[in-house]
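A further point concerns the way the authors explain their paired sequence and structure data. Nothing conveys this as quickly as seeing an actual entry. An entry of this sort, consisting of the sequence and the corresponding C-alpha cells, reads as follows:
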Amino acid sequence: MSIFKQATKGAGAIAAVVEVPISQIYKIEHVTLHLSAAPTTSEDFTITLDANAGAAYDTLLQTTDLSSSSTTDLVWYPDASLHLTGGDALDIEYLNTDGALYGLEVVWSC
C-alpha cells in the first residue's frame, strides 16, 4: 500500500481539491486541519465528494462550524472506507474570514 499526502498552508480561504486520476482508485485515510487561532466568524469547514458520475452523486461528507467550539485542530476520518475512483474529487473549503494561518493535510492510499 502506498500512502500519499497533499499539504496546503496559508492565511486566506481554503479551496483544496484532491482529484483522482482516471483509472486509479484512492482510499481517503484522513484529513487534518490546524488553525493558528480560533475563529470568531461563523463559517463552515466542508469536505465534499465531487463525484465523476455527476452532480446527482455529489455528497457532503463533513461540515463543521469551527467558531462554535473555538476549534483550532480538526481531524476527520471517514466513518467507513471511502474509495474515490478515477475522475472523483474531494473538495475541501473554508472561507477563513478571520485570516488564521492554517495547515491542511489530506492523506490517502492506493
Notes: The mean pLDDT is 93. The chain is about 0% helix and 55% strand. The first strand starts at residue 3 and ends at 10. The chain has one domain: 3-109.
